[in-house]
Amino acid sequence: MGIKVLRAGLQTTVQDLGRYGFQQHGVIVSGAMDTFALRMANLLVGNNEGEAALEITLMGPRLEFEQDVLIAICGADLSAKVDGVPARQWCPVYIKKGSVLSFGGCVFGCRAYLAVAGGFAVKEVLNSRSTYLRAGIGGYLGRALQEGDVLTVGSPAEWSDREMRKLAEQSAGMTALGWGISVDLFPSYGTNPTIRVLRGAQFNHFAQESRDAFLASPFKVLPQSDRMGYRLKGPKLELSEPLEMISEAVASGTVQVPPEGQPIVLLADRQTAGGYPKIAQIISVDLPVIAQAKPGESLRFQVVSLEEAEALYVAREMQIEQVRQAIALRYR
Amino acid sequence: MKIYPLGDAAAVIELGGEISEAVHRKVKALSIQLEAQPIPGMIEYVPAFTTVTVFYDPYRVLREMGVQLSEAGMSGLVSPYRKVHDMLERMVAEIGDEAEIAARVIEIPVCYGEEFGPDLEFVANHNGLTPEEVIRIHSSAEYLVYMVGFAPGFPYLGGMPEAIAAPRRPSPRLAIPAGSVGIAGKQTGVYPIETPGGWQIIGRTPIELFIPDSNPPTILASGDRICFRAISRQEYMERKEGGR
Predict the structure, then answer these.
(1) What are A223-237's pLDDT values in tens digits?
(2) Can you give the residue range of the structural domain that contains B202?
(3) Which of B74, B94, B114 is the last residue of a domain?
(4) How many helices (H) and strands (E) does chain A have?
(5) Would the keyword Hydrolase turn up in this protein's UniProt record (chain A) (predicted)?
(6) Residue B99: phi, psi to the nearest 5?
């Protein structure tokens, strides 16, 4: 009994907040691309914010619920429907056993997160339930979901369990609870977004025209973009003179430029170290924004100061703490 | 020594400007110190050739250091990076550079050339050598594992003879098979899993370098010494079938 995959979708994987602590052994972090959406989806169903959820990419799966569940879908709007009826996002939704969740056209964004009260009971590998596709570990058998897979649901928190029992008596099919995450709290999601960056360690090694072009021109997201990184196409970025680089650690959001001159933004499945010059680093609060950019969209980069990035980071964490407290109060 | 930010949630400590065993010992010493006494808010640290990068949660740095956060957030407060910077600076000043480097020597068998090493010819031509000379030079040196990174269990090795150095490919390959042995600049290494990469591939090993069910999940660690041994296609096949 659990959640049965009737159709897999383009790429649906189990992800949590990432596999930390093993980068010194070369094990990548993985985890959700849009951590804000993952955290919100989990909080809405009474989970710990880092519980494993499904990351659903562009074309969503078709899932049959073999038990009553409380779910929340956050992030991209991929036209979720339960038994053909549009399902609300960014709020808890109760779904009765036997219902089928399907996805349709992509209204906004690239990745939706489906959390279920109790989380997905998949084995932890190196302290995380994230799927690391290239190594074939974590998540559901180390791979994306396939037709016929059955995901087991863990034990829900006491309040969400209580809520489900209450709704089971009143509800015939799907019931969206009348509250959720306010749009005001969203990251600066948008189509063709402007992404805020800090100057990278080698920013000043790029030719002046390249520095100017990096900050003034749109960059197109190429189809080869994936969880490892976004390959961008724009003006050719060149160093003012050749630079001998020694490999060192890279982070999520590092914008590196290989010799061909087109930037690559490293993301959740990035390697742990890199040897290409780093022109910029995306600020933490804008990582969910770039995670929702689709191939074919254009990005622009805007420089901010470290202090500004830090202030935004702290403000975001304080907001999330308030959400956590508000949800706890609601269900006490 | 230099400390600089890698975005808003990581700091890089640069302990030297060149790849050398002396700088490696400093990297190792700082790693040991960070393992023993993580700084407040630290998530993990990643040692490399000349750097150690500390990943931290800026919010937790402030919280764990007892900084009061107002409704307005951190406006007017000291930046988390500043706090991290100062803590790391003090830590580096206190450590010596006499860290022990393990004396383990690990042999890695490699089948060079043909379909396992499509860039062997390029490396030979680039250096005015024959493929056989490249193999002999590559497999007669002893290498130091400076760092493990890029992919799980991928060793960055020092000690490669400059006679076989070769530039990275101008555009990275999208998929390099597991076990591939490559050269980039003056570095050589082994790809433990299939991955994209820009190195020149000269051969392949049947040995598994990444074992996810064990902790640590790799057979090589920073500080190990390794050597490569040329093996035949037949030995490659036998070892591949027989496991390790």
Answers:
(1) 999 999 999 999 999
(2) 105-242
(3) B94
(4) 5, 21
(5) yes
(6) -60, 140
